[in-house]
Each structure stands twice: as structure tokens, then as C-alpha cells.
Amino acid sequence: HYRVSTMPNRYLPLFVTLVVLSCPAACAQSNEQMLKEFADKLETTNGRKPTRFELEDICEKLSTIIKESPANAEALRLRSVARVEVGEPQGALEDIAASLTLEPKNVKALTQNAIIKSFSDDPAGAIKAYEDAIKAGADTALVYTNMGSLYERVGQPAKAIECFDKAIAREGGKASDLARALRAIALTNAKEYEKSISDCDIALKTNLPGMLVNELHKTRGMDLFFLSRYKEALVEFDIAANTMPDGPGKGLVVFVRTRNI
Asked: Measuring CA to CA, which residue among 128, 164, 133, 135 is closest to residue 253?
């Protein structure tokens, strides 16, 4: 025997309506949770860096959210971050432009826009992008370190040093350490050799990428050479020659991404 439901038909439309209405709310909540998880993975500085497979998976899931909600500015911003990491600069630029169209004063989006432009052949445009981020409230070691790198790239060491000073004053962890190392190079270009040596000595005690450590030894050698301390200069050049990593040489420019603050 089977029991047949006796629920009156007049209640059925109400039941169906409640189910239909609850689905979009649940999906929205689920998407919001996913975006928070993705932001933690992409931007948390103390966590493990996602693998390429994980980044591609994040991109795919963000694409699904964006397809469902094309006006989701945060999803577009996060996909831009992920696309930078997987080597898709054009897609990243398109995503961040779309995100800023929706939320033109979003500080994180403005900073991401500047980071992407830092890797372009338009350093002046990248500097302008960082200025826009600062006007909107971005006031971090990352922002000033990257802007200083750009000023160094266009041959303006005085402005670079000013930016690096601000980055160091903000105690931004790794970004501040990089700022001090890059300030040492800028000080050499500005012929401030004693100050550069002081920065080199402090920076070499921190945890820096190998190619930057090599660059600092060369920079310190140049400082000593210009101060006529030739024997000491030769020691630094010898260290640099024996620790040469694969990577760029003189004129090194380092850009810090969001997760490396």
C-alpha cells in the first residue's frame, strides 16, 4: 500500500515559489563565500602560494561566477590577480578595467591596475596608475616600493629615493626590505655612496631574492670604487662574480605583487 499525499493543491504554488526564490539567495551566498576563499588564497601573505593548477582552477570558477553575474566587480578583480600569476597580462588588464568601470574608487582594484601596468612598456602610465591608487587611499609599502622602482626605471633616482623612503617608513615586511635594497641602488645612481653602503649593509642581512643579493654586492662594490676604496671594492665584485644567479643584471627592477606585501 502507498500513502498518497493529501496536501491541498492550493499550497503547491506557494511551495514552488519559495523554493525558486531561495535558490538565487543561496547561490549569491555561495559565490560570496567562494570569493572570500579565493581572496585568501590569492592575497594572504603568510599562506602557501597556490600552484598553477590551483590558479587555473580559481580562474575557471571565477569565470563561472562572472558568467552568472557579469557586474560582479570583486570576481573580475580576483580573476585579474589570478591571471597575472598564470601569465595572462592582457586578460588581467581587461578584467581589472571592467572591475574599475563598476567600482572606480576601489583601492584594491586601483592597486591591481597599477601592478599590471608596472610590467608594461609604459612606466609613465604605471606611475600615474599608482598615483591614482594613492589618491584613493592606498598607503602601503608595496605601492611606494613599486612606484620607486618605476621612477628608477625612467632615470629619476631622486623621486625613486623619495618613494623608497615612504615604503621603508611603513614597515611593510618584505616590501620594506625590497625598498631598502632598491634605495641602495638608487642612492648609487644619485652619487650618495656612503648612504648606499649603509642601505646595502642592512638589506644584505634580510631575506632577499638571490639576484637582488648579487646586485647589492655589485652596487656596494661600485660605491667603494667611487670612494677610492679599491681593495674593498674588489672583494665585493669578487663576491658578485662568484654568486651570479640566473636573471637580469644591472638595471634590475623589482615589482612586488599583492601577496608579497
From this structure: 164
> Taking a C-beta distance cutoff of 8 angstroms, is the pair 8, 14 a contact?
no
* Tens-binned pLDDT, residue by residue, of the chain (261 aa): 544 444 455 544 443 443 444 445 545 558 888 899 988 888 875 567 888 999 999 999 999 999 999 999 999 999 999 999 999 999 999 999 999 999 999 999 999 999 999 988 889 999 999 999 999 999 889 899 999 999 999 999 999 999 999 999 987 678 889 999 999 999 999 999 999 999 999 999 999 888 999 999 999 999 999 999 999 999 999 999 988 765 444 444 555 555 444
Dihedral angle, C-alpha 54, 57, 63, 68, nearest 10 °: -120
DSSP H helices in the chain: 12-43, 52-68, 73-85, 89-102, 107-118, 123-135, 141-153, 157-169, 174-189, 193-203, 210-226, 230-242
Global pTM value: 0.77
* Listed residue (259, 258, 260, 254) closest to 118, CA to CA: 254
The number of residues making up the chain comes to: 261
